[in-house]
Each structure stands twice: as C-alpha cells, then as structure tokens.
Amino acid sequence: MLNKILHAHSPIRRKLAFLSRHFNITVSPKLRNNFSQPTPDGIEQLRDLIMRKYLPSWYSGTDLDGHFDSEEWWRIDLENHLFRRLEMDRYRFVPWIDRVAPFKKNPTILEVGCGTGSAAVAMAEQGADVVAIDAHLEAIEVSRPRAQIHGLSNVSFIYGNAQNLWELVGKRRFDLIVFFAVLEHMTLKECKSSLRAAWEILPKGKHICITDTPNRLWFYDAHTSHLPFFNWLPDELAFEYSKRSSRYPFNMRFRELNNDSMVLFIREGRGVSFHEIDLALDDNCKYKIISDLTGFLSLRNPAMTLKRFLVGAGRREKLLNSYAPDRHRSFFRESLDLVIEKLD
Questions:
Q1: CA distances from 117 to 58, 121, 138, 214, 318 (A)
Q2: Under DSSP, is residue 285 helix (H, G, I), strand (E, B) or coil?
Q3: pLDDT per residue over 327-344, tens digit each?
Q4: Residue 327: Cβ-neighbour burial (10 angstroms; 0-12, 13-18, 19+)
Q5: How far apart are CA 43 and CA 48, in angstroms?
Q6: pTM above threshold 0.90
C-alpha cells in the first residue's frame, strides 16, 4: 500500500517533491541578495522567444509540429523554461556549487549544454565569469537575451558542440566545468568526447560537475519515459517500447526506426552511468568525488530527508552500491549530481 501511495506520480509523492524544493534552508542572504529581476517586458520577450523559437525547434521533425498551443504539457514545458528552472538553480544548484567554487572569489565557469540559460544566469548573477555552450542554436537564441534581460554582462554564449571544446574556448582555463542536464541527451560518442575534452582543458585541482543527469542504473526512468527499467533496455528495444509510455507526446514521437529517428530518440534522454566516465577518462586519469547534491541537500532540507526515507531511496541506493562497493555512493542515486576533482 505504501508503495502505491509513494509511486512516482502519486499526489503524495508530488507534494513531497514540492516541499523538498520549496522548504529550503540552503540559500544564504548573501546569495539571495544577488538574485536579478527582469522587467515584465523582459519576461514577455523571453516567453515569446521560448514559444516561437526554442520549443518548436525541440519538437521539430515530428507530426506534432504546429499543434502545441492548446496542450497542457506545452504550457508546463514553457513555465519550466521561463521560471521553474531558474528557481531550482538558485535554490539548489548555486548553494551547492558555492561550496566547491565560492562565488565570492569570482570563479571562471564553463557550462556545457546551457539550454535556455537558466543555470548560466543563476551563476553569473552571483559574480561568476561564465562561458556557456550549446549545440542547439535556438537555445542560444533564447539564452543570450535572457542574460541581457537580467542585466548580466559577465556571461557569454557560444553555439557549438562540446566535442570541440579546444576550438570553442581556446586556451581559456576554468575553475569549474559544468555538465548540467546534458550528457543524457548526447550520443555515446558525443558524451565520451565531451567529457574527455573537458578533462584535458581542466587544470589540476579544479572540478567537473555533472548534475541533473538521470542515472541509467536506476530502476525507474522519471526523466523521459516514466517507465520502470526503461534505461536498462538496449536502444532499439527502448525505441519500440516507447509507445507504451504514459508521457505525452513522447509516446507518440517514435514509430519508424532509422538512423535519424534513433538520434532524435537518444536526444530525448537515455540516462548516464559511471561507465561513460570510465571510458572518457581512461584508467590513467586520477580523480575523486568530493561532493554530491543529494548529500548536501539532505543535511539541510528536512522535507527532502523525509521524502527519501518514505520512498526508500537510501535502501535502493545501498542495494545498487553493494554490487560495486568500490564506487562512490553518488553513482547509485536516481540522478547523477556529483563533483569530480582532477588529481593529476
């Protein structure tokens, strides 16, 4: 009975998730005081850009084109890009990163896969010098004006593929390189190449952050399909099985299997695990996990601690970890949210 009540889509679990986001005690006044506020006209400009450029381009190449305006999922997606992602970045991500690369020291940060710019704004408004990259042109066309609307001049946006970091950022060096909700949208080749390129330009003693990335090893895919064991399936089987998903429009998108549709399918999000990191960094690269977001928030957010206890997240993590006890616990959580320090 308890498992049914705490199912991923149950009202009680959604309420716990809401409380864990909003009953938050991790944001200090020094960080809150730096929150920038766009004008109402700026918000309307951003809303128009997201509706007219970003969302249609993300769902391009399907029979859903041009039929979004009346859909509830479309409005939710719009609100996420317009408000909710920035709120989450400010209240969860920024306080965590402040412990690794303190904003009072004006760190230089490279964000790989900046999307519509929420995290870049959240870091830049705290004083970080941010370079943000995305391979989705329409995302860059939203993120640039977003920074302008917030009055930020210490963030720049580059259109390009992170496999080519050397060409995109030149000889610049960074205190922190962030992969924010992006690795799961890459092909295997892109994922390995991007991580390897980031590692090569990262100075010794600095950090890579991988965050908001669904863990392929987790038993339930809450990111893409809303199905159990979905990320455990081979790509072709998952492609065919996607029509069984309850998530619209994902369950309507993928019917004819070919190279192009498979790439689009992978772009939806297939999860990531420690295996890609192993392959990207090879056996000769020395690193250690110095922080994870779940551990950081659980110590400071009573609602999140209660939620994790009730849904049994800790027991599941411990079970998965028991099969690879030499690995850090953060590799077995529902989402990969970890900071890696380069030792060599």
A1: 15, 6, 11, 20, 35
A2: coil
A3: 999 999 999 999 999 997
A4: middle
A5: 9
A6: no
